[in-house]
Amino acid sequence: MEEKEQATIAELIKYHRKNQKMTQEQLCEATGISISTLKKYETGLRHPKAEQLQRIAEALGISDKEFMPLKVKSRSDI
């Protein structure tokens, strides 16, 4: 059986943002998070606190549970 990887919060934020066809700038406007902070979240250089994840989820129209660890078959699934 093939071992599956876990998507990171960084990858999930970027995935859901792109899935909603939002730019980083649009997400920043909707959440009040600075562009430099969002870029750090999406590259994994910084990890958002629960409050920021909640704001991001609300802006993306998803549940904050969507940021829970997700098993994927390959990085191309993200």
Describe the SSE topology.
Layout: E1 5-7, H1 9-19, H2 24-31, H3 35-43, H4 50-60, E2 70-72
Antiparallel strand pairs: 1-2
Helix pairs in contact: 1-3
**What is the average per-residue confidence, as pLDDT, rounded to a whole number?**
87
- Report the span from N to C terminus: 20 Å
Strand content: 5-15%
Runs with pLDDT <50, length 5+? none
Please tally the β strands and state the result.
Answer: 2
| Main beta sheet strand tally, sense and closure | 2 strands, antiparallel
Radius of gyration: 12 Å
Structural class: mainly alpha
- Helical residue percent band: 40-55%
Overall spatial form: globular
Strand order of the largest sheet: 1-2
Keywords for this entry:
mainly alpha; two-stranded antiparallel ribbon; globular; 78 residues; 50% helix; single chain; 2 strands
Short structural description:
The chain has 78 residues and is mainly alpha-helical. It has helices spanning 9-19, 24-31, 35-43, 50-60, and strands spanning 5-7, 70-72.
Describe this structure in words.
Strands 1-2 form a two-stranded antiparallel sheet. It starts with a strand and ends in a 6-residue tail after the last strand. The longest helix is centred in the first third of the chain and has 11 residues, at 9-19. Helices cover 50% and strands 8% of the residues. Helix 1 (9-19) crosses helix 3. The protein has helices spanning 9-19, 24-31, 35-43, 50-60, and strands at 5-7, 70-72. 15% of the residues are buried. The chain has four helices and two strands. By secondary structure, it is mostly helical.
